[in-house]
Amino acid sequence: MAKLHVTTTVNGEPMEFLCEPYETMLDALRGQLGLTGSKEGCSSGDCGACSITLDDRLVCSCLMLAAEAEGHEIRTIEGMANGERLHPLQQKFLEHAALQCGICTSGMLVASDALLKKNPDPTEEEVRFWLAGNLCRCTGYDKIVRAVMETAAEMRQGIQEAAQ
User: What is the tens place of the pLDDT at every residue in 83-127?
Assistant: First the structure.
């Protein structure tokens, strides 16, 4: 079977790769593109560890075929940090100890970032609902939710200060 040629943008960089027609985006990210931040937790879209954004829409990369990336923009956990500087969500996850084993962390961060882009002022209930597709067996979610809520508040305050 012939491999498919895929042209896409990953974390702001134009990328091209060859993939098998049945290859998942998760496999292409990890195996071909060397982006190992997205984790394989379940391979059925139930855990959220492999979460990425496709044109700003949150998706499980284990359920997406790599060929579906053609012409689209992908963002992974590696695309969140700005060089050596952590993304504000990453910083708050560290400050709040909102991670333990690390399997769910990249998916939680990508999902949280996607939420804050859609809704910069979420309620706690909205954060919990948005992250319901991301399973964590270690933290109990409270520290994660607090980290997201505090990031949202600080981002809003920064926007208000910049407007003044």
Answer: 778 999 999 999 999 998 999 999 999 999 999 999 999 999 999
The stretch 39-52 carries a mean pLDDT of: 95
Indicate if 152 and 109 belong to the same structural domain: yes
Beta pairing partners, 75: 53
Task: Print the domain residue range for 99.
Answer: 88-163
- Phi first, then psi, for residue 24 (nearest 5°) are -80, 160
Q: For residues 87 and 93, give the distance between their C-alpha atoms in angstroms, rounded to a whole number.
A: 10
Distance separating alpha carbons of residues 158 and 98, to the nearest angstrom: 23
CB 55 within 8 A of CB 72: yes
Given 31, 62, 79, the domain boundary residue is: 79
What is the tally of structural domains in the chain? 2
Say if residue 162's pLDDT is above 80: no
Token duo for residue 83 = 């060089």
Of 24, 58, 79, the residue that ends a domain is: 79
